[in-house]
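Thread: "does anyone have the structure for this chain?"

Original post by V.I.:
We have the sequence but no experimental structure in hand. Need at least a predicted one for the grant figures.
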Amino acid sequence: MSTVHVLLGLLSRGPRHGYELKRDHDQRLPRAKPIAFGQVYATLGRMQRDGLVEQAQRDRAAGPDRTSYALTAAGRTALDGWLDAVEPPAPYVSSTLLAKVVVALLIDDPQRARRYLAAQRAAHAARIRELTRAKTAPEATLGEIVAADYAINHLDADLRWLDTTVGRVADLHREVRQ
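Reply from O.Q.:
Generated one for you, tokens below.
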């Protein structure tokens, strides 16, 4: 995820200060890792340096200074370019799941890989149940539902891979031991 571009998108709705950006980020991207205040301000500093945002207003009401930032024309252009760019599929298979199975087969017998695959399957299934409960809760927002659907679909793909791989463990073991 591009923090710069998410913040640019949040600023496209009007000037905001860091506290508002953090709140909006965490609210609009439910189930994503919450953004830290320090990350917001560090990113805003780089964005200002790069001409993507500018200070809009500085408030000093009953508390610390609050600087609001606004999107610049260059920031809007950068945001539009990012939104128009198609994300390429990952060029490499990089997965801890895959690495653990291969390493388990390299150092041990196929049973260890099968045990790992079964345990990982159980963990994925439990997470899918948790996400399903969250997205069907009466108070679930549309943003939370969309985020849960995204996660569930990715977990489901992993489950299909885990199930397929269990059936291939013996053959994989012979191949990696050569």
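V.I.: this helps a lot. Strands lie at 16-17, 53-59, 66-71.
O.Q.: and The mean pLDDT is 85.
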